[in-house]
Amino acid sequence: MAAMPEPGYDGGVVTPPGEEAVMAAREAAASANSLDELRALLADFRGCNLRLTAKNMVFADGNPQARLMLVGEAPGRDEDIEGRPFVGRSGKLLDRMLAAIGLDRSSAYIANVIYWRPPGNRDPSDLEVSICRPFILRQIELVNPAVLMFLGNQPSKALVGRDAMAGIRKFRGRWRTFDIAGRPVPLMPTYHPAYLLRQPIEKRLAWRDFLEVKARLGEVG
């Protein structure tokens, strides 16, 4: 794999990587034969400027052998400090939602579509999403879950594309099919726990989505 130059600061302004970073990300992700290899490649990857301002890379939590994989948006402050996805208030809510369908972090695998916290919790740029996309796609392939859940708008937009552009309010709650190395996997998009903390009235809809996932996990054995 061609070495990526370290993104740096130029007069106090971060110099953004170009499209060569996206190509390097694709090459690096494709070369990973295990989750440990993928994590090591990400830790050494120099093509995303978000790593310059983040405290920690946030790779995953939970059981990589689990049948359910959840993919969230980008790390927040608490996740950046701990280096784990879904901690703090949103993580506690997610844990309660998983517990309500008989699961916990030992029976689910949790990742994010972005691996480093964007400064000020801003939305990641299109280029940052494009750079991280090959890694999360390879991560999903390596986990090879029976059922996928996307939490929030970012993973749906980044990994599904045009059909998700109308927003999570219209996209959630209906089963889709996600292709994992030629194998169709049921996908349920739903609201992000952080959104549910701001809009608790929507919890009833997310609850329906989690019940759908519970039923589907029973169907797929």
Walk me through what this model shows:
Helix 1 runs parallel beside helix 6 (126-143). This protein has 221 residues and is of the alpha/beta class. The protein is built from ten helices and eight strands. The strands form two sheets. A six-stranded mixed beta sheet has the order 3-5-4-6-8-7, sandwiched between helices. A two-stranded antiparallel sheet has the order 1-2. The protein has one domain: Uracil-DNA Glycosylase, subunit E (3-Layer(aba) Sandwich), CATH 3.40.470.10. Mean pLDDT is 90; it is low at 1-15. The longest helix is centred in the middle third of the chain and has 18 residues, at 126-143.
Q: Topology, please?
A:
Blueprint: E1 9-10, E2 13-14, H1 19-31, H2 35-44, H3 50-53, E3 60-62, E4 68-72, H4 77-82, H5 88-100, E5 109-112, H6 126-143, E6 147-151, H7 153-159, H8 168-171, E7 176-180, E8 183-190, H9 193-198, H10 203-219
Parallel strand pairs: 4-5, 4-6, 6-8
Antiparallel strand pairs: 1-2, 3-5, 7-8
Keywords: 4Fe-4S, DNA damage, DNA repair, Hydrolase, Iron, Iron-sulfur, Metal-binding
EC number: 3.2.2.27
Pfam families: UDG (PF03167)
- As a whole number of angstroms, the C-alpha radius of gyration is 17 Å
* Alpha-carbon distance between the two ends: 39 Å
Please write the string of helix (H) and strand (E) elements: EEHHHEEHHEHEHHEEHH
CATH superfamily: Uracil-DNA glycosylase-like domain
Category by helix and strand content: alpha/beta
Overall pLDDT: 90
Count of the separate structural domains:
1
Assigned CATH architecture: 3-Layer(aba) Sandwich
- Strand sequence of the main sheet, in spatial order? 3-5-4-6-8-7
CATH topology: Uracil-DNA Glycosylase, subunit E
User: How many DSSP helices?
Assistant: 10
The CATH class, by name, is Alpha Beta
**Major β-sheet profile:** 6 strands, mixed
Beta-strand content bin: 15-25%
Strands, count: 8
Keywords: 4Fe-4S, DNA damage, DNA repair, Hydrolase, Iron, Iron-sulfur, Metal-binding
Domain Uracil-DNA glycosylase-like: 59-211
Family: Belongs to the uracil-DNA glycosylase (UDG) superfamily. Type 4 (UDGa) family.
Catalytic activity: Hydrolyzes single-stranded DNA or mismatched double-stranded DNA and polynucleotides, releasing free uracil
